[in-house]
Amino acid sequence: MNYASLGKRLGAKVIDTLIIGIIAFTILFFYYAKFSLGLELMLVFGALFVTYNVIFVYFKGATPGKFAMKIIVVNTDSSKISLKNAIYREIIMAFYLICNAFGNLLVLGTLLIWNLFLGFMLLFGVAEKFKFFFDARKKTLHDYLADTVVVNYE
Known about the structure:
Layout: H1 6-32, H2 39-60, H3 64-68, E1 71-75, H4 83-103, H5 112-130, H6 141-146, E2 148-152
Antiparallel strand pairs: 1-2
Helix pairs in contact: 1-2, 2-4, 4-5
């Protein structure tokens, strides 16, 4: 198999994030009749992120961003990803994003327990992507746990 590079995966993520962001902003704009950047946006974005990725990856093998970068998600045996694996993969990815969001707030924590919690969140967020550099199949932690790989297609 020809495994997808980090550059292609990041490019796909940027495209998908822009698409999901536009949808989230639009929903909140019409729902609240104002532009919101608070918790509402984060919740809508998170729900859209998981739903968008599960639907596209399960039914098409890739999101629009992945299609643009010519990469798809498959099981490690090259078979079509199952609905269970698609859901599992995206929930792990959503947890990673939450970890990064909270980990980035580490400098704002003042209590020792809060700092330890945020430190764990930051560590998990870094570990999620760190595995990519040491895996011959270029799998991140969420790929490993969901038994999937991201490969190039022509």
